[in-house]
């Protein structure tokens, strides 16, 4: 949980656990995250999908970020909903129509249709939407996509802490797990009174421990 939730390196987590009397190697942390992180993230994501599919005003925000992998530029496509919850992350070598179409199909298969899909003015988005037969659902605008622009920040902090990624496969695996677990613990404290925020935070931690016990 500490490794995925906070911008910490494997060795940072090793040192934090050592202070608590748990003597392990950073490679053990890597094994734990690789074995259990995607499993917990999939369970959290499934619960979110079941809860949100019934919404009639669901709005998605789509965007892509540039990521350097061994000196080469790759693209991380990301989607969030109108509440800022990360829906999907997808890594590609290009940001053309084919990549945008693959990302949108993955989104629709997992989450069902959205009422509105907000994108930037990248023509790949429009071409993919036309091929899917729902161009009328696309919205573009200068400030309409600020929701997802802000959601890139936690990923960028993690990228710096991990001194970038070495493989596309590693980036895909980490981005998918990190986004779901970030959703689970992101209680938007600026929207709640202190007492309500503390209650929501305690509930999220209790649910996480239930996943871990199962």
| CATH homology-level superfamily | Ribonuclease H-like superfamily/Ribonuclease H
CATH topology: Nucleotidyltransferase, domain 5
Helix/strand-derived class? alpha/beta
Residue fraction in strands: 15-25%
Number of helices: 8
Tell me the count of domains.
Answer: 1
Order of helices and strands: HHHEEEHEHEHHH
The largest pleated sheet is described as: 5 strands, mixed
Q: Please, could you describe this protein's structure?
A:
By secondary structure, the chain is an alpha/beta fold. It has a single domain, classed as Ribonuclease H-like superfamily/Ribonuclease H (Nucleotidyltransferase, domain 5), CATH 3.30.420. The chain has eight helices and five strands; from the N terminus they run αααβββαβαβααα. The chain is globular, with a radius of gyration of 18 Å.
